[in-house]
Specification:
Reverse transcriptase domain-containing protein; single chain; mainly alpha; about 190 residues; DNA/RNA_pol_sf; 6 helices; RT_dom; extended; two-stranded antiparallel ribbon
Length: about 190
C-alpha cells in the first residue's frame, strides 16, 4: 500500500527557493447571495469524506441558520484559515478497465474530501474568479477552466487565424502534449 501511495502522491515538495509574499488587501466579505448560490447547487448523494457528512445535511442546516455559515466562512477568509482536518481525505484506488492489476499505473486514485471543505473551496473559487476578472489577470487566449470558453472555441479561433494568415503568409503550427501533464507540474 505504501508503494502505491508513494507512486500517486510523492513526498517531494516545491523548490525551497520559491518565495511568495502575499498582498494583504482587505478581504471582501462573502455575500449571502454567493453563499446561497453555493448551497443551492450542492448535489446530494455524492460520496462524503472522512466525516461522513453529506451535502444534504449541510443544506438542511443552512436553511435553519444562514447567518451562522455566513459568519463562519467570512471569518475563515478574514483570518486566512482553512482547518487542516478539512484537507484530510479518504483515499481508494479504482482499477482501470483492461489494465494489469499488478501495475501502479493501472489504478486511478480517488480522494474523498470533507463536504464542508469543498463548500469553502467553492466560495474561494467565487472570490478568486472575481479577483482575476476584476484585475484583468486572465489572458484572452486562455480557454481552459473558464465559463463560456471551451476547446471547441479554441480550435475555431486557431482555424480562423490559419485561414486569415495563410492568405498572405506561410504559417506553421506546433502542438505540444505533455504525457500526464498534471502529474509533471513540478
Amino acid at each position: 500500500m505504501a508503494f502505491i501511495m508513494n507512486s500517486f502522491f510523492p513526498c517531494h515538495s516545491a523548490s525551497d527557493d520559491f518565495f511568495y509574499t502575499p498582498v494583504m488587501d482587505s478581504v471582501e466579505p462573502i455575500k449571502l447571495e454567493d453563499l446561497e448560490l453555493v448551497f443551492n447547487n450542492l448535489k446530494g448523494g455524492k460520496a462524503p469524506g472522512l466525516d461522513q457528512i453529506d451535502y444534504r445535511m449541510w443544506r438542511a442546516v443552512f436553511t435553519i441558520d444562514k447567518t451562522f455559515f455566513l459568519d463562519l466562512f467570512n471569518l475563515c477568509f478574514t483570518l486566512n484559515y482553512f482547518p487542516d482536518a478539512l484537507g484530510n481525505a479518504k483515499i481508494f484506488f479504482l482499477l482501470k478497465d483492461g489494465k494489469d492489476p499488478g501495475a501502479c499505473s493501472s489504478y486511478r486514485p480517488v480522494c474523498l474530501l470533507t463536504t464542508i471543505g469543498k463548500i469553502i473551496e467553492r466560495l474561494f473559487l467565487i472570490k478568486l474568479n472575481f479577483w482575476l476578472d476584476h484585475n484583468n489577470i486572465i489572458h484572452n487566449n486562455q480557454y481552459g477552466f473558464l465559463e463560456g470558453r471551451s476547446c471547441d472555441l479554441a480550435i475555431q479561433n486557431i482555424v480562423d487565424i490559419i485561414r486569415e494568415k495563410s492568405q498572405t503568409h506561410h504559417i506553421a503550427l506546433i502542438s505540444l502534449d505533455i504525457k500526464s501533464a498534471f502529474d509533471n507540474m513540478n
